[in-house]
Amino acid sequence: MSRIEGGLIDRSRSLGFTFDGKRLKGHPGDTLASALLANGVRLVGRSFKYHRPRGILSAGSEEPNALVELGTGARREPNTRATVVELFDGLAASSQNRWPALGFDALAVNDMLAPFLTAGFYYKTFMWPKSFWETVYEPAIRRAAGLGRLSMQPDPDAYDKGFLHCDLLVIGGGPAGLAAALTAGRAGARVILADEDFRLGGRLLAETHPLDDAPATDWVAAVEAELASLPNVRVLSRTTVFGAFDHGIYGAVQRVADHLPDPGAQVRQSLWRITARRAVLAAGATERHIPFADNDRPGIMLAGAMRAYANRWAVTPLTRPGQRVAVFANNDDGHRTAIDLVARGVNVLAVIDPRPDAPRLGEYQLFAAAQVTGARGRLGLSSIEVTHADGRAHWLEVSALGVSGGWNPNLHLASHHRGRPVWSEGHKAFLPGPDGPAGLSVAGAAAGQGTTHAALTGGARAAQGALADLGIAAALPALPAAEDRPAIPTPFWHVKGRGRAWVDFQNDVTVKDIALSRRENMTSVEHMKRWTTLGMATDQGKTANVTALAVMSELTGKAIPQTGTTIFRPPYTPVSLGVLGGGDTGPHFRPRRLTPTHAWAKAQGAVFVEVGQWMRAQYFPRPGETHWRQSVDREVTATRAGVGLCDVTTLGKIDVQGRDAAAFLDRIYANTMSTLAVGRVRYGVMLREDGIAYDDGTCARLAEDHFVVTTTTANAGLVYRNMEFARQCLWPDLDVQLISTTDAWAQISVAGPRARDLLARIVDGADLSNASFPFMACAELTVCGGLRARLFRISFSGELAYEIAVPARYGNALMARMIEAGADLGATPYGTEALGVLRIEKGHAAGNEINGQTTAQMLGLGKMVSTKKDAIGAVMSRREGLAADTRRLVGLVPVDPAERVVAGSHLFAEGAAQRTETDQGWITSACFSPHLGTHIGLGFLVDGAGRTGEVVIAANPVEGMAVRLRVVSPHFVDPEGGRLRD
Amino acid sequence: MLIPHPLLGPRDAQEFTYLGDASLIDRPDGMADGAEAAFCDYVYLRDNPAGVHRELWFHEFGDRSWLVVTRNTVTHEILGAELAADVARRGR
Amino acid sequence: MRFSGFRIIAEALTGQKGWRPLWRDPDPQPAYDIVIVGGGGHGLATAYYLATVFRQARIAVLEKGWLGSGNIGRNTTIIRSNYLLPGNEPFYEFSMKLWEGLEQELNFNAMVSQRGILNLCHTDAQRDAYRRRGNAMILAGADAELLGPDQVRAMYPFLNFGNARFPIKGGLLQRRAGTARHDGVAWGYARGADLRGVDLIQNCEVTGFRIEGGRVRGVETSRGYIAAGKVGVAVAGSSSRVMAQAGMRLPIESHALQAFVSEGLKRSIDGVITFGAGHFYISQSDKGGLVFGGDIDGYNSYAQRGNLPVIEDVAEGGMALMPALGRARVLRIWGGIMDMSMDGSPIIDRTSVEGLYLNAGWCYGGFKATPASGYAFAHLIATGTPHPTATAYRLDRFARGHLIDEKGAGAQPNLH
C-alpha cells in the first residue's frame, strides 16, 4: 500500500481512528492526513462551490481541500485541516459539505452548471420576480452554502488565557527559528519559541539534506534538548502565533489538549498574550502550485508536501503497488521530490518542467520545456496530459502528481500592521517590506533565505541583531554545514489552455474567473478578490493570492508590483472563538459584585437581580406569596406603615477631602455646596460638560474639609473618573483629594414612620430627635455598642428615613440586628422593586429619567443650576436648543383606574394623529402604587409644566395598547414633604 | 498596546480608560464673556490628526492618574507620556 | 448591458465573451458641475441619485483608491431602521424603503435580505427602553415587535438561556431589517452612476480645495486640478483630514472598529442578533461565514486595524450569548476607520464655504444609511434644501444644542 519505509512515526504502536465511519489505523507521529494517505484514502473533501472531489494538497496549515469535521456531538469541530490534526487513538473524522456521501454528492451538479456560475454571477440574477430572492433563491443558496456544521450545542471544553513576557519571541521552529532560539537562549535572554507543529524542526523534518553529514533530526534533537535545559527558554509546541499587535504584543494559541481523546481536567486551548521586546518571524514558506486544466484532482498535491509525506510520515498518495507518480515543477526544488521518492523506491515516471534548460538532477525521466495540460480521474488521479514545446501531447498514467511553482515566504505577521510586502524579482516572490511591526525581524525562508544554510545563519543573525538592540551581546553559535543551493523558480505561473485551471481550490476560483474579472474591469487586486471570492476561503489565499496576482498581471500586461500587492490580516490561521473568549463565559462572563448583606438576604430567600455587575435583592418572597407583586406590594406597604430596610451599598460613595474641597465641589455640582454647613446633607445634581444632567445624589459635609458624595449605582465609576479628571486636569492647583469608598462602607436605608424608633435601639447614645437630628442632618457616631458608623437623614421614599453606613464587613450583621431589633415595629426588608415603587410614588428621578438625554430643567431641577458660579456643564446647559425644550417630568395616572401604565409608551394629545411629528413625550417609569391603588407613571411631556389635569393618550403600539392618562404632579405621596421632615 | 506610565513603567492599555484630545485640559472660563462660543469649540471640535496626537488616558484600573500620552494615530507608536496634572499646571 | 438570468445563460453558451466592464475608467475632465469626493457607498449613491432622481449632469466621483474601498468594503452588512429619536428614525426608515427596492432600481443583486434583527434585553429597564424605541419605530412607519423570553427562545434556542450571567429577558425584533451584500451595494451604485454618464475616477486623491470669495471653485487632486460648480465630500473615516484642507474643524474623531468573519459554516443563524449585556452582534452571510463584531477599540486611530483586548471582548460576548460558538473559528479580522461624531449621529449639511457640502459622522452605522444618505445628500446638493428626513443632521446642531444622542453618552465619541 502507500506506507513506505522510514519516517518519523512510531510503528511500534497503532492508533485506531475513523473516517466517515470507516475504521482505520495509523501511528503516533501521524497527522490525520498522513494516516488517511497510509490507508489509501485519497478523496477527503469537496470544494465549496462546485463540490468537486478533493484530496490532500499540502502538509501544513495552508491546506484548502482536506477539511473535515473532527469529533462528534458537542465537540464536533468543523473545517478542521486534516493536515495539521495530530492523530490520536479514537479520533473520529467525517467529510463535510457533501450529501448524501463523499463519493456521491448531489450538489456536484453545480460542476456541470459551472458555465452559469461564473465569478459574480449572483450579482446579475435572482432578481425576478422581486419576491423570489428571499422566498426561493436565497433560502436555496443558504441551504447549500457553508462547509462544515457547527454542533449548535454549548462547547463542553474549558479555555484559558495568560500573559507571557520575553526578550525575544521566535515564531517558528524550523532551521531559522531553532538557530535564533539557540543564539538567544545561550546569550541568557528570556526566549519564547513558538511552533505550530507538534514536533520541532519545521522543514528539516520533511527533507533529507544532512546537517554536518548526519540526519537533520539529530541536530534538531540536540537543539531541542539544549533549549529544554535552559531555564530562560520556554518552548511552546502546538502553538500558533496568530497576530502581531501594537507595541510588541503577539497573540498565540496553544492547543493544549487537541491531540488527546479527551482533555480531562486540562483546558482545551490557551490564549497567550505575549509581550515581546523583540521578535523573529521564522515561519518558513508555503509552496505555490501551478494552475492547469483539472489541476484539482485528488492525488495532485504540492511537490514539497509529497516529499514531506514520504520523508517524515513514510507515505505516498499511491493506493496500489505498481502505481506511479510524476512531478510538475518550474524550479529545481520540485525535482527534489523526484529524487527523494526514487531513493525510497517509489516509481517516478517523469518530471515535467517548463524550463527548456531544466536540469536532470537524479534518476528520473525529464520532460524539459514541457507542461502538464490536463488531468483525468474524478475521484482520484489516473493520468495527466503532457504537452511539449512543439505542441505534441500525450497522456501518462500516473496516480499522483507533485506540483511546484516555487515558494512564497510566510511573511503574514510582518504585514499585520498593514505594511506592504515588496516584490523581489530575484526571488520571484514577495518579501517582507520595510514597514513591518516595530521590533519584528524576519529570518529564514520567510525572509527569502531559501536554503537550509541561509535559514540557519539568517536565524542566528536575526536573533543576534534583535538582542543587540536590547544591549544583550549574543555570540553566533557554531551551525552545522548544510545544503546551500537556492531554487529560484522560472516565472511560469499557469498553463494556458481551454480547460478550467484552479487558482483558489476551496472557493473554486479558476484562471477563467480572473480573466472574466479583468473583462468586467474588476482589475484592482481588491476588486478581483471580491468579485471572484479568491483568497476568502479558510486558507485565506495562502495557496492562491500570489498566483492570482501573477495571472492578473499577465492579463493586464503590467508587472506584478504594478498590478498590486496583497497583505494579510490576523489571524494567521483561524482561531477558535472559545479560546479567544477564555474562561470569561457563561456565569463568569463578568465579575459578580455582592453587597455586604448578600448572605443575609440569601438566607431570607431573596430573589436577586443583576444591576450592572452587582447582584441585588430584588424582593423577599414570603411563604404563600406566589407572584412577585404580592411581595413587592407588601414591602412597600410595610415601609410606609412601619419601617423598611434596604441595602443601598451599591450607590457610589466618594470621599472628598482637602482645604479646597468645598470650592472643588462647587465646580462639580450644578448647585452650590460650599454653603453647606458641617453636619448637613444637600441634594446635588451633576451635569456633563455638554449641559446634560448625568447624575444626582447627596453630598454630606462631615467636616469643614471633608465631604462624602454619593452617586447613582450605574454612574459610581463614571462620576469618580470625571471628578479625578476635574481635579487633575482642570484644577490641579486646588488642595483636594478623592477616594472611592463604595466598597468600604455598607449602607442600609431605614425608611418609614418607625425608622427613628428602630434606629434609637441601634445607635449608641445619640439624640435622634427631630430637633437635634433633623431632615438632611448627618453625623459620625457609633452603633451597637461602639461600631463606627455614619448616619444620614435622607429620604428616597418620601418617608422619615435614614441611611446608616458601617464598615462593609459589618453590613451583614447590622442588617440582621436591625431586623431583629425592629421586629415589633414591623421592620421589613425590601428589595430593588419596592425601592423603585417608593421612589416613583415620591416622584424621584432615577436612571430611567436621568438617562443622558435629559436636562436639569426637564427633570424639574432647572433652578438648581447656579448662574453665579462656573460649574461643569453650566454654560452649555443654557444653549438655545436645551433652554427652549419645554418637556417636563410629570406624573401620570390612568383615567380608568383599572388600566395599566406602561413605561416606554409615547404620549399624545387626545384626538391627535399618532406619528413621529405629533409625539409629545414618553413614559419613563411606571409601577403599581399600593399607596394609590392604581398604576402610576412618570414621564416627560411637552409643555408638561402647565398641563396638570389634562388627559393625554399613552400609545404603546408595539404591544397594541393605548391608555388615557391624566397628568398629575410627579409627587404622588406627600407632595408637601411633611413626612420626611417629621 | 502598552502605555509608558511615567511613574509605573509600561502598563497594558487595558488598565486605562481613554477620553480624547488633550485639549480638554484647556477648559474655557465659564464666567467670561462669550463663554458659550468658547465652550462649543472646547466640547465639540477636534483637530483629529492623522499623525501625532496628544490625548488623555485615565489609569482607572491602576493608580488613577490621568496621563497625557503622545501617540501617532497612524502607526500607534507612542512618543511619550506624562502626568496630566503636570501638563495642566504648566499650562500645556 | 442589462443583467438577467437570460443574459447569464446566453453568455454561458457563448463562452462568456460578451461581458463588458461594470464601469469605465475615464480620465478626469477639466471641469464638472458637481464633484463628489469619495467613491465609497455614500459617494457613489449620491452620484447615482444626482444623475437619476435629480437629473444633474457633468458629475464626477473622485476616489483616492479603488471604488468601494471605504467602509462600504469593510463592515458587517447590517441594514435596519430601529432608531429611537425623531431626528433619526424617519431617515433610517426612508433608507429601509430604498433598500427594499434597490435591486430592481439598480438592476444589480445587492442581496438585500430582510432576515430580521433581534436586539436582546437583559434588564427591565432595558426592556422599557426597547419598548419606547419600538413604539418610536412604529410611529415613524417602521415595523417593530417586542418579544418575551419564550418567544426569543423559540426563535433562537441555541442562545444561552440556562447558564447566563445576564439572563435574556426578551428582545426588540425588526423583521424588515437584515443584511445586504456590502460590496454589491457599492458596485450596483457605481455601475448605475456610470451608465448615466457619471465619471468614476479611481486613484485620484483630493489634496486641496480652491476657495475664492467664500465659494468653492474646484479641487486639487493627485491627477491635477478639477474645477467644480459644487463639491460634495463623503469620505467617512477621513472627514477631518479632508475638511481640514478647507480650513474646517469638525465635531468628529476617527476611531478603529474591528469586525470578524468565521470560516464558512452550514446554516446556523437565520437573522441578526445583538447582545444586550456586552458588545457583540452576529449574523451569517449567504456564503456561510458568521459575521460579527463589537465595540470600537476606543482610541483615536487611522490605522485600519485594532488590538487584542477588543478581540477578546467580542469573543467573550459571543461565548456568553451563544456557547456553541466555541468551536467556530475566526477566519479574518479587519479594521475600518469610523467618523465618530460627538453625538453619535451624522452630518448632511452645507458648510461655511458656499458650494461645499459635507456628508460625515456616520460612526459605525453608515452602511445601512447608504441609500438614504446618497439620496438626501443629492437632494441637498441639487436643490439647496435638506431632504425632509434629514433636516436634523445639521452641522450647527452642536452649537445650538439640538443634539441627536441615541445613547445619551454625550460629547465623547468613543462612547457612541
Automatic annotation (TrEMBL), chain A:
Cross-referenced InterPro entries: 2Fe-2S-bd_N, FAD/NAD-bd_sf, GcvT/YgfZ/DmdA, GcvT/YgfZ_C, GcvT_C, GCVT_N, Sarcosine_oxidase_asu, SoxA_A3
SoxA A3 domain sequence ranges: 499-583
Domain of life: Bacteria
Pfam annotation, one family: SO_alpha_A3
Record-annotated membrane-spanning stretches: none
GO molecular function terms attached to this record: sarcosine oxidase activity
Gene Ontology biological process terms from the UniProt entry: tetrahydrofolate metabolic process
Span of domain GCVT N-terminal: 598-869
Alphabetized UniProt keyword annotations: Oxidoreductase
Stretches assigned to the Aminomethyltransferase C-terminal domain: 887-974
PANTHER family assigned to the protein according to its UniProt record, in alphabetical order: AMINOMETHYLTRANSFERASE, AMINOMETHYLTRANSFERASE, MITOCHONDRIAL
Family: Belongs to the GcvT family.
Protein's name according to its UniProt entry: Sarcosine oxidase subunit alpha family protein
Automatic annotation (TrEMBL), chain B:
Single GO biological process annotation from the record: tetrahydrofolate metabolic process
InterPro entries attached to this UniProt entry: SoxD, SoxD_sf
GO molecular function: sarcosine oxidase activity
Name of the protein: Sarcosine oxidase subunit delta
Species lineage: Bacteria, Pseudomonadati, Pseudomonadota, Alphaproteobacteria, Rhodobacterales
Automatic annotation (TrEMBL), chain C:
Main location: cytoplasm
Domain FAD dependent oxidoreductase, first and last residues per copy: 33-380
Gene Ontology BP, a term: tetrahydrofolate metabolic process
This protein's UniProt keywords: Cytoplasm, Nucleotide-binding, Oxidoreductase
The keyword Nucleotide-binding is annotated on this UniProt entry: yes
Pfam name, any one: DAO
Metal-binding found in the keyword field: no
Tree of life domain: Bacteria
Cellular location(s): Cytoplasm
Cellular component GO terms, alphabetical: cytoplasm
Entry protein name: Sarcosine oxidase subunit beta family protein
